[in-house]
Amino acid sequence: MSHNTFGHLFRVTTWGESHGAAIGCVVDGMPPNIRFTVAEIQAELDRRRPGQSRYTTQRQELDQVRVLSGVMPGETEGDYVSTGTPIALEIQNTDQRSKDYSDIAQRYRPGHADMTYDVKYGIRDHRGGGRSSARETAMRVAAGALARKVVPGLRVRGALVAIGATWVDRSRWDWDEVPRNPFFCPDAETATRWAEELDAVRKSGSSIGAVVEIVAEGVPAGLGAPIYGKLDADIASGLMSINAVKGVEIGEGFAAAALSGEENADEMRPGPDGRPQFLSNHAGGILGGISTGQAVVARFAVKPTSSILTPRRSVDAGGNAVDVMTKGRHDPCVGIRAVPVGEAMVACAIADHYLRDRGQVGAVRA
Amino acid sequence: MSHNTFGHLFRVTTWGESHGAAIGCVVDGMPPNIRFTVAEIQAELDRRRPGQSRYTTQRQELDQVRVLSGVMPGETEGDYVSTGTPIALEIQNTDQRSKDYSDIAQRYRPGHADMTYDVKYGIRDHRGGGRSSARETAMRVAAGALARKVVPGLRVRGALVAIGATWVDRSRWDWDEVPRNPFFCPDAETATRWAEELDAVRKSGSSIGAVVEIVAEGVPAGLGAPIYGKLDADIASGLMSINAVKGVEIGEGFAAAALSGEENADEMRPGPDGRPQFLSNHAGGILGGISTGQAVVARFAVKPTSSILTPRRSVDAGGNAVDVMTKGRHDPCVGIRAVPVGEAMVACAIADHYLRDRGQVGAVRA
Amino acid sequence: MSHNTFGHLFRVTTWGESHGAAIGCVVDGMPPNIRFTVAEIQAELDRRRPGQSRYTTQRQELDQVRVLSGVMPGETEGDYVSTGTPIALEIQNTDQRSKDYSDIAQRYRPGHADMTYDVKYGIRDHRGGGRSSARETAMRVAAGALARKVVPGLRVRGALVAIGATWVDRSRWDWDEVPRNPFFCPDAETATRWAEELDAVRKSGSSIGAVVEIVAEGVPAGLGAPIYGKLDADIASGLMSINAVKGVEIGEGFAAAALSGEENADEMRPGPDGRPQFLSNHAGGILGGISTGQAVVARFAVKPTSSILTPRRSVDAGGNAVDVMTKGRHDPCVGIRAVPVGEAMVACAIADHYLRDRGQVGAVRA
Amino acid sequence: MSHNTFGHLFRVTTWGESHGAAIGCVVDGMPPNIRFTVAEIQAELDRRRPGQSRYTTQRQELDQVRVLSGVMPGETEGDYVSTGTPIALEIQNTDQRSKDYSDIAQRYRPGHADMTYDVKYGIRDHRGGGRSSARETAMRVAAGALARKVVPGLRVRGALVAIGATWVDRSRWDWDEVPRNPFFCPDAETATRWAEELDAVRKSGSSIGAVVEIVAEGVPAGLGAPIYGKLDADIASGLMSINAVKGVEIGEGFAAAALSGEENADEMRPGPDGRPQFLSNHAGGILGGISTGQAVVARFAVKPTSSILTPRRSVDAGGNAVDVMTKGRHDPCVGIRAVPVGEAMVACAIADHYLRDRGQVGAVRA
């Protein structure tokens, strides 16, 4: 809802800096009597974890999550049942080479939040980006693993659909392909091409942007709270809050601007079960801020990270002109690891709205 | 923050349906001792008001706003000074031809919120779209007029940058041109072309999408509350909550995905006053969710309205196949009137963050 | 939740000053498909309305409430069905003798909020107390009338249990007596005694304090959100926010401090239906912040109003010593009219927690 | 603001159960650049810590707090400077004799939250009371230590003013006496008497209630957000949310009910500095929900714990009649350890309102 908390009834509060002792989150509002395992959370974290290929930062974090509260132990170790009280999750930070950053303590990296944090707070944890580091998103992924459990039948999947100007070919879209390549790419041919292109980017010390698509299936019709808590507005807020995201769209998104009303309207016919069935999904599963029962489709654009080896003109905290080059370990395409993060934010927004309609307790009583 | 309220410390709660007795809003958190006139609010409302050209709905609403609370009268009639207590604004609904809608009471218009409201609430005010009508946005505009007063030196302007596939020519951008044509177009030549294109759309009973750009100047550096209350996340939420909006972007937006880190980074040099000065604004004035002091630039895509004269396949509330054609008075391009609404949402988000940093009382004491 | 809004899912936002054009509220979160009549709201307002006996202020307000949004008309005039969208209620202010207050515009009445509003906001609507007037509580009562409809079987009643040092005799408690006397007194004999005592207070231009008791029956077991949204914490917040209230207690309240664990514990035995049945209700129907299913019992103390005819030493806005005497029309015992207000706050808190558990939509689907 | 979070801009979210791996809290909204030491937090925790005298539970918890985020290290170990990002505090649970509770897993202790948690959530962590244990209040005390740092010059102190029917003699009130006895008693003679009385209670396996008084000095005039975020309403909510609290009052509190307007009004005269000076403080430092600049005075009643050795009639989870006796280590008077908890809640409420007025950043910029 605000500051370091996302959600209204399914509330995720994250804390921690890139190079502090630990990072963590509190999930407040998890319905009671929901079974989950620490392995399920870990599996999601492992998808986001750095150091898994040469296309992501070489920082090695085991990202071993612990469940500290809000549960009763299940039958085997690592099995839990939620009790309805806040669930605290925590990951110790282990691989922190703070010295990598010492030379940028007083320098503002262009395109980074260095200057704005200093202006706002008058103090900044410069080590690894501090609070503005993408490391915070690990806890979103952990919380998202719980959110996925809240709505029965919910399935939230994501894929990278563009790196730079190279888009996937939707005619070859195959969800099964996504975990098979290091890009979350649903199209094997495009993945091969991306590998070549990213190698060039990496070797030149540069970086490149990307576009991520999230598809949520099994979203019950009726979720979303008009006017300012529309499901799409909350998804937009959640996705835009991810590091480096500069654009968010639902369904046709910006392409809808060029369509006519005839083209864009999703017609309906009675379905086999007598309920309204849509003949298309330009709307991305949301009308008037409320889910239609179709798949919710969201995309977001991730800018190229400014942590590059090419020196850029900047200033330091004292107001002097300096040139800045980032030597730390970084991702040539931060958009890749944003895929599980985007899934998590969409899952959290949907879980939150599910509880707004059904209540924390009502959700498991129906 | 939720449901029918936007904002955290500058909180706007709107109420009312298209064809109810009135619509209104409560602005809670307005700092005390700020002078404003009802004419200033009315001027903003008049920019959004329907019936002003043949390109917007012919519904005639005077949209005469009244200030019911939260103020002491100033020296002349219609002058006010805020007292720090909630300001209630209200507009009577006067021109309601409910009969226009009687034939769609039981039919779901494709692309409209008819079906989703019914699924969610089990009841729906079908007259003019009820709560899902764009009429609600009048109160956003009214609240935005107050938000503009909160931050000294803030200037929020908007323009339509695309209708359908026709974009403005940025080399001809002229803010002075915006109020001179019925499209909020900053480019006279494009405005002429749009006039022709929209005439064709209107005559065929069709509709077309659009893209709006909002530019906020005078935004102090340092506004924005990481992690989940980032200024861009709140702007995204506010803009996405506007009727028919399907995409939101900040600065380079989706185009950033195709850029390299070198291209996208905004370099800095010490400015004449010794403070950091940016050499470009790809970021759209926001880094790490915090304003940089540059202009905040946001764009959003508005889909074509589904209220068209061409019959579309649909179902009715009883589950039967029907064809739906909307005969009411509607805008061929709802994106036009979204310009002042977008300005208002950006102004409200900025005012809210200004107060989060400085406090309701501190904002006027500094 | 904050400032001028009470509640989390059943959210009541009030606005308006004693001598402005109108007062009103927005009830956001009312479940859909709940039938109510304007007469039901009016009936509650009439119980709080001033000018009904010589023991309350002679200000004559018809307090005629209007329903402006959030409803579809029912079968007869004044009948409504909620649609799930915000319900706006409004009362025009009609009898405003602002001149009565002109001599206290610059003087701080001891015991009033005059000085604190000036210190906080640097401006104050002095007419009739402005926003700090008890007139605001009319909208709480109106909202409470809707809250009562949210929880099936809920019955919230209140009574005055003490004026000054004179307490009702609980052995004579008769709810049917409450509407028969001008004090909401459940004990006819005490009502007679209060009439005499209050006549003396009124004639001397003085005022006296009171204690109100609210009893809510039909509260489902399980309502209340540990830790900081406990049902008793929210009731305490709601009651303490009523003008002139200085103390709140639940069940045994302060008397519990003098009890032993044996005396205070409410023992249980299996009830006729097999469910736990309490043998006493020292807890006032709440354990660990969660309702037990017994009657929720709350009491609050109302201080004597400081609007008295005896001059009191004070200062003016310029810092000069002055003597202040309030000549306006006031209640000798403001606690009397606080009874329906207390009922409303308890009803709102219970409705809010009912929705937190079951959701806005789930509440009417079970 | 809700559920497991207290506060609006100074937000404290606590998590953890009595017998889980750890307990903790996240303090979101701490202004940047505030210096504090872990020793300062520890000192407050040590005042609340159990096992320090024979009058409190013999459970031995070192309650060693760690600071995990939101800070930059200061010059010496354990010194910190806040950065404006969330501060996570954590305490490992070390001394958990869960077996003590095994026999009450299925039995509802009268006066405890056992039954209500089961009814609400359908599951309950019975070990040591789980989430409903007073152990959670350790994190309130830790957060309160930070809250005390937010408002310059703020001093919040508490004292026990009654155990059972034995009240302190206010004519002997000496704040210096409070830390010298195991009761936080400001009156040495009463402390001696309480020692005798409590010995008897303890030996009989019984328990007794208490009343706590909190006095906050150095509260700036003007804090408090009418109407539903009044300073006294938020203090009432915070204090009522403490385990076993059944009543809260401000200033004269319930005694005000028996006073006349003349007696209760706090008269004013110009002070030496020309500003209004109160001649008394019946109001407890709050008028109209806004602080007057005088000391804020709050009291709360703590019921006797129901964990007693005398068997009480009850039921078990299966609905059978059982007798329950609590054999665990418990406090004969839980009100004693509530003193630092009450201080913490008042400090948090004041810090929150300080930030609402001045903003998170503005608070340290003035």
UniProtKB/TrEMBL annotation, chains A, B, C, D:
Catalytic EC class: lyase
InterPro entries reported for this sequence: Chorismate_synth (IPR000453), Chorismate_synth_AroC_sf (IPR035904), Chorismate_synthase_CS (IPR020541)
Q: Which PROSITE patterns match?
A: CHORISMATE_SYNTHASE_1, CHORISMATE_SYNTHASE_2, CHORISMATE_SYNTHASE_3
Its needed co-factors are:
FMNH2
Q: Where does NADP(+) bind?
A: 48, 54
Check the UniProt entry and state the signal peptide residues, or none. Answer: none
Alphabetized HAMAP family for the sequence: Chorismate_synth
Subunit arrangement?
A: Homotetramer.
Name the chain's protein. Chorismate synthase
Source organism per entry reads Jiella sonneratiae
